[in-house]
Every structure is written in structure tokens, then in C-alpha cells.
Amino acid sequence: MLATIIICFVIACLCPAILRKSQWTSNCLAFVPLALFIYFIRFVPAIQHHHTFYSSLNWLPALGIQLSFYLDGLSNLFALLISGIGIFIVLYSGTYLRGNPQLGRFYAYLFFFMGAMLGVVLADNLMSLFIFWELTSLSSFLLISFDHQRKAARRAALQGLLVTVAGGLALLTGFILLKIVGHSFNLTHLTQTFSNGLARHHWYTLITLLILIGAATKSAQFPFHFWLPNAMQAPTPVSAYLHSATMVQAGVYLIARFTPLLGHTQLWFTMLVMFGSFTMLCTLILALQSSDIKRMLAYSTTMALGMLFFLLASDDSLIINAAMLFFFAHALYKAGLFLAAGNIDHATGTRDLYKLGGLYRYMPITLIGTLLCAASMAGLPPLLGFISKELIYEAKLNLGWEKSMLLLIALLCNIVFVIIAIMIVIKPFFSRQIEKFPYKPHEQSWQQWLGLLVLAGGSLFLGLFPRLIDNELVYPATFVVTGKTINSNLSLWHGITPAFLLSVITLLCGIGLFMGHKKIYMILQTIRAWSIEKTVDRCCQGFVYFANFVTVKIQSGYLSRYLATILAFIAISVGVILFQHHNYPIKQIIPRTAHWFDWLLILLLLISATAIALSKDYLTNITLLSVIGICTSLIFLIYGAPDVAITQLLVDILTIVIIVLALYRLPRLPKIQHVRKTTLLRNATIATISGLVISILLLAATSVPFNRQVTTYYVDHAYVLAHGRNIVNVILVDFRSLDTLGEILVVALAGLGVYGLLKTKPGRRSANS
Fold it and tell me: What is the mean pLDDT of each run of 10 residues along the chain (769 residues)?
């Protein structure tokens, strides 16, 4: 299974080179998802009998992270849709973007996206799942912003990235808490460990909320629903892939996968019902406000995702089975409808329903595919969408009339599906043409209508013969979620049942409301509800303004202010901690010097430091700095560290020589400006407090009993291991040789810089200056 993901990533790397020579080779790339589809369909007979397949590769075993993959009924259903629909997306993209100089880059992003999605649905280790989860966000960002010259595309891509990555951080936190609770990152191990769920653990609520937030952001659930319709700035094949089988369905997959571990509780039910209900109610209004085909389809996708969250909230096997069938049917007709929208846009130059009309004469193939997909969306027999809608009604009716509000929400959602389906067929193809098209519409090449016809034909064929996917695909996925066996008997006709009557009511209401769709559209256009998207944009702008304000205040451009800020922060933070946690009396940390020479050196240091602060001449300051360096070297020498003293002296001499040579080579420097008294007082205060805090910190550190374990080790092993009697030299050359090598390289690079500076003649200017 790891090989399938690696293949996608390798092809992604090769796409720019492959398509650089000839764009016609894009058709050959469709064999990659075709091979993946054949690979996964081989497992259907075994998975049908509840067999599972597992593979693992150690990645970071010390942290419990493996590249482990798990194939069962649920992951196989998603993998088949990702690879199967991917075949037609790859074919479609080559002709839709023909002539685009960045086609190779587009295919690289597309296969990167495909590999990341396969990683999400196959991963068993939580950390590897999270990595693939974030890769889907990154690759979708690249796909949405493919036409990066347009501001709208860049904005939509950034918006989607911010929302999904924020949800990813919540998801990562939930995964880490699961590791702490279950002592494992492997999802199968966690599910087996907590066979009855995790509900009794005191961290259950927090873990559940974090994981649900991660799933809700990825699947564009309310209040995160706004980013998905804006993602329509992506090319049409990306929209078709994104909405049918890939990224937005990742949240649905995550909910289904974690149901055995976190589901079947009141919190799980309440949160999913709230997400699903609010999403459906909000987006059905927004869908009817839209006139752009892709945007309307995007809102219908968000409604469908809300429906799936709504259904997955239950612990009833029939409802979960309805959710799996609805997911499959939705993937088929939604991918087809987006491909049809792309054909219409490609042929007419517009996607506005109120500017289209009369296309049945020019695009009969697209009409047939659109008609079948829209019929499946509306739930008309004998399409697969009809069976899934009846199954949903039947499952909801089994809950009893006490939960009729949930059934009413599902009914409203399906009515809007009918309205959208009718509009997508009637308005572009059969309504009167209002505006003249810039060029005569016509059918595109076979690559652009093949996928549409296959997906539409699949909805029709599987609607007529639903048992072909009943026990092979739908039921195995349901069994993974519920762990229960059910008597799944999908068929096109169950007689006149309450569910069938609800389907008839849905269709009649949808047709009736469509008759007045213009009035509904005009009324909804007058509604300007509170926009979450605008609120999020304003918050982002507020962060930018705040960052600019802080940057202006802190990044002033004056080195003295930077140093003052850094020293003040160090003094305050270290000083507070030092005086809170230090228990030694002050007299115990003040050193007792008995020799007059010690006091003489301290006096020289104080005089030199004070003179530097008062002097206004550069050479005088440099000379006084050298006095401080010599006094420091003498202190090291007195207290038994001659090596350190010599090093200090050499560094001090080298520094002074470099500074003097640099001043000699540089133009005449301005005199040190007069500093205001308030600034001088501020700097003096910060310098004094910083010096006192650091001095007390060093004295306190030396007053603590010294741990001689490392020193003893060096003393005992310096001669035995390194054959050296000078312990300091042995440490530098043998025990810490890499550190010493790094320091030598730094000094060498600094020396090269100084050499270049010395070679520069005064007054000589470069050609670029």
C-alpha cells in the first residue's frame, strides 16, 4: 500500500519533465490512477468476507511512529473512488487546460493531491495520518491557487489553507492526547484497547471536540463552510475532484473511522447533528442565492457533507449504511455535474445560469450526462441517488416520530437538491438564450465528455442493479463503522412505503418551488445576513494591523533600541525568576577577595566601563575596551585558568586590531551624537540593572555545590583514551572535536571577511552601488 502512495508522489515529480516535451502525453498519465483502481478492486472479494490487510514500515520507532497502512471496507471504498474518479479527472485536465504553459505543474499538484488523499484513507498510524492530512491542505492550496495571477484565486487558496491548517492543529492535539491515553499512535491498537469506546475516560470530551473540529474544518461544516465555495477559483477538474472523492470527504472519512473509538455517545450525537443541521440549513439558502453553476454545486456539496455528518451521528446500522450509499452516489453524480459545468464554461465562456440557454442544440452529449447526474441528485428513479434517498428516509423513519425535526431537515435539504438539479438542466439547455455567446458553443474533445458519460452511466447502471455494490462496497464499509452485521438488501423498488411517499413529496415540492425560482432568487438576494467569511477576513486584517503596529514600535531601525529592549527583557525575566527561587543569603554569594591586586583589577574595570559610557571618541573607547579585556585575562590567570586567559587575550587583541583596521579603511565617521538626558538615563538604568542581575546570577551559580561528575570523567579518561595530559586540549581536540571544528570554520570565515575588507581601497565603489 505504501507503494501506491509513493507512485503518486514520484509521478508528481516527473510530470513537469514529461509534459515539457508534449502536452499530448497527459492522456497516458491516466493509466496511473487506472492501475491504482485495478489494484484496489482486487481486494473487494476478500474484504467482502471481512478480511483486512496491514503493512508497516518503521519510521521513528523511538516515538512510536510508523508508516503503517490498513485496508478494510471503509478505506477501500474511499480508495476506489479516489483512484476511479481520478482517471477521468486526469483525462479531462489535459484538454481543459490545453495550451497552458504550466500544465506540467498542474499535473504535479494533482498527483501530489491524489497521493496525499490515499495516504489519509490508508494510514493507520495517527502521526502518519496527520502528515498526509496536512499534505492534502498544502496540495489543495497549490491547486486552488493554480491561476496565481488572479487575486481571487490567491485569496481563496489562502483562506482554505488557514481554515484547514487551523483544524489540523486541533486534530494533532487530539491525536497526541489519544497517544497519552492509549500509549499508542496506531488506530487499530487503540480501537482494540478501548473496544467499548473511550467514553469513560476523563479526557474523552476534549479529545472528541478536537477531532470533530479537525474534521469539520476539512469538510467545510458550519461555521467553517465559507472556504469551500470560494475554492471554486480552482480549475474545474480540481473542483470536480475536490468535491466528489477527495479533500472535503476526508472529514467524513475521519468521522466514520473514529466512530468505533469515540462514537455512540450523547456528545458525539449532539455535535455531529449540530454541525450537520446548521450546515444544511445555512448552505441551502446560500445555494439558492447563487446563479453561478459551480458555486451552486459547491453549496450543494456542503449540504451533502452536512447530510453525511448528520447521518454518521447515529449508532443505527441502517442509517450508517444509508450514509455510505449516499456518499458513493454523491461522488458519482457530483463529479459528473462539475465536469458538465466545465464543459459549459469552456463552450460559452460563462457559468451564470441566467445568461445561458438553448445549449441542447449544440451540446447533446453534455446534456445527456448532465440530465442523468442531475436526476440522480434529485433522487429520481431509476438512478442510484433515488435508492440512497429512500434508504435515508427509511432509516430516519425507523427512529420514530419523536425525532421528526431531524427528518424535516433532511427533507428540506433534499427539496433544495431537486431545485438545483432542475435548474442545472433547464436553465442552460432549454431556457431561452438571453445573451449572445462570444463564439458558437460546441462539444469538446472526447476526454471532456467521456468521464461525464461514464459517471452518469454508472449512476444509472448501479441504480438498476444496486446489488452489484451492496455486499461488495457499501456493506463492508458499514460493518467497519458499526461492527454489526445487517441485512442489507438494496433494490430499486420496495413498493409504496412511507419512504417512497416522502420521495414523491420531495420531488413535488422541488418542482413547485422551481416554478417560482425567480421570485425566490430575488427575495433571497435582498437578504444580507451576517457573514462569517467577512468576520474571519476582518480578524485576519486585524492581526495584520496589530503585527504592523508591533513591528513599527519594535523594529525601529536603531541598534541601540534593539540592545536596550533585549537587555531589559533579559534583566526582568531572569531577575524575577532569580529572586523568586534563589534561597541563598546575599552574603554567601559575594566573593571574599583577600589580595589587594584583586581590588585593583576591579577598580580598573569600573573606571574603564564608566569612561566608555562618558567618552565620545571611537579610539578612546576601543582603548578602554582593550583595558577591560586585559583585566579580564589577568583575573582568569590569577584564579588558575591560564589557557582561558591566553585565549581571552588573543581574542581581545584580534578584535581590537580588526576594529582599528576597519575604522582606518572606512570613511570618516561622524562624531558620537549628543544623547538626550532621558535617553541617557533610560540606557544607564537598563545597563545597571542588567549588569547587576547577570553578576548576581553568575555569583549565585558559583555558590552552588559544583557537580564534578563530568570533570572527573575527563580527568580519568583524558590520558587513557586520548593520550593527552592537558585536559583542556584533550577536550577541545578529542572529546569536543566537532565543536572545535565549527568554531575554527567560523573564525576562518570571519577572517576571509576581514581580508576582503582590508583589500578594499578607501573611496572605491562597486559597479552596482
Answer: 90 88 79 94 91 87 83 93 93 86 90 94 93 93 89 88 92 93 89 82 91 92 86 87 83 93 88 90 85 89 90 86 91 92 86 85 91 92 90 75 71 90 90 75 83 92 89 90 80 81 90 82 66 73 84 78 87 83 54 68 85 78 85 83 82 79 67 71 86 83 77 85 84 85 87 77 49
Structural element, H or E, at residue 60: strand 58-60
- Cβ contacts of residue 115 below 8 Å, gap of 6+? 5, 6, 7, 8, 9, 12, 135
Q: Backbone phi, then psi, for 765, in 5-degree steps?
A: -115, 145
For 407-440, the DSSP string reads HHHHHHHHHHHHHHHHHHHHHHHTSPP-S--SS-
Sequence-separated (6 or more) residues with CB below 8 Å from residue 100: 106
- Can you tell me the distance from the alpha carbon of 518 to that of 299, in angstroms, rounded to the nearest whole number? 19
Residue 117 near residue 53, CB atoms below 8 Å: no
Is the pTM above the cut of 0.90?
no
Q: Whole-angstrom Cα distance, residue 150 to residue 370?
A: 29
Strand partners, 55: 69
Q: Vertex 371, ends 366 and 374: CA angle to 5°?
A: 120
H or E element that contains 5: helix 2-21
Letter string b/e over residues 29-64, b meaning 16 or more CB atoms within 10 A of that residue's CB:
bbebbbebbebbbebbeebbeeeeeeebeeeeeeeb
**Rounded distance, CA 374 to CA 731, Å?**
77
Q: Cell numbers 440549513 correspond to what residue?
A: 281
- CA–CA distances in Å: residue 75 to residues 5, 7, 111, 425: 14, 18, 19, 34
Phi, psi of 125 (to 5 degrees): -75, 135
10 Å Cβ neighbour count for 551? 10
How far is the C-alpha of 335 from the C-alpha of 347, rounded, in Å? 18
Residue with cell 583577600: 594
Is 591 in a helix, a strand, or coil?
Answer: coil
